[in-house]
Write a structure and sequence with these properties.
The chain has helices at about 5-10, 15-25, 35-95, 110-125, 155-165, 195-210, and strands at about 100, 130-140, 145-150, 185-190, 215, 220-225, 230-235. The protein is of the alpha+beta class. Helix 1 (about 5-10) runs antiparallel to helix 3 and helix 4 (about 110-125) crosses helix 5.
């Protein structure tokens, strides 16, 4: 017999028991004294069942409410994650015409246009100054160094500038005329924080799985195991499972 059926059965004698107890109290009952205690016990049992049933019903409602809240939280977390991804992708698209130059020492009263011109000479690539939309220094996370961000008018000019700089393996601060330092100068796509983090994880996974090529083009992370294998793009961290 289930809890609900037991409750209904016990409740069906509740009225009779209550009437009998009233008669007992007035001395008009014909029931023996031994039965008095059983009637009282029965009444208390019914009350206990009523309390238990109510508590159980409320507990079930609370469990249902908690489960609904948990489902809502999961749904909201999914929405937030999706919005973050969309925001990051939108931010990265806004940087498609930008390059980030690292390794150029900071100098007082420096002329960033002149520095870019020197890089062009060192890499044998030139373009009109009018192709530059703006350029400025930006701090690097966890470093005292400041990178140079150059925003180009034409994306294809930007891509050619990056390609020529990457092809120049001798590009260094010394090659740009700075003395007392031999640090390399790197010209890359201007990635946002999320993309940089993903790039670092991709490089680690590639090293672990013996993938030889990881590069960024048009703001997207490309991976290839060797010269003859097909390349694929890493859009999110779950794509790292593609390494095999």
């Amino acid at each position: 017999m289930g809890f609900r059926e037991l409750f209904v059965k016990k409740s069906s004698i509740y009225t009779e028991t209550s009437v009998e107890l009233t008669l007992i109290a007035s001395g008009e009952s014909e029931v023996s004294t031994g039965w008095h205690f059983q009637l009282v016990y029965c009444l208390f049992t019914i009350v206990a069942l009523q309390i238990a049933y109510t508590t159980n019903h409320m507990a079930k409602k609370r469990v249902t409410s908690v489960e609904q809240l948990q489902a809502t939280v999961v749904s909201l977390e999914t929405d937030v994650s999706s919005l973050k991804s969309q925001l990051s992708a939108s931010e990265q698209r806004s940087r498609l015409n930008n390059v980030e130059i690292k390794g150029v020492p900071l100098k007082k009263d420096e002329n960033l246009f002149s520095i870019v011109e020197v890089i062009c000479k060192a890499t044998n690539y030139s373009f009109p100054k009018t192709q530059i939309n703006y350029l400025h220094r930006v701090p690097l996370h966890g470093s005292k160094e400041k990178a140079i961000v150059v925003s180009f008018i034409n994306r294809y000019v930007k891509e050619e500038f990056v390609a020529s700089a990457r092809a120049c393996k001798t590009l260094s601060a010394a090659a740009l005329g700075f003395t007392g330092t031999s640090q390399r100068v790197f010209v890359n796509d201007h990635l946002n924080a999320e993309s940089k983090n993903l790039l670092n994880k991709t490089k680690s996974a590639a090293k672990e799985k013996n993938f030889n090529y990881v590069w960024v083009k048009y703001g997207k992370i490309h991976v290839r195991k060797n010269e003859t294998s097909p390349a694929f793009i890493v859009y999110r961290e779950s794509d790292l499972n593609k390494f095999a």
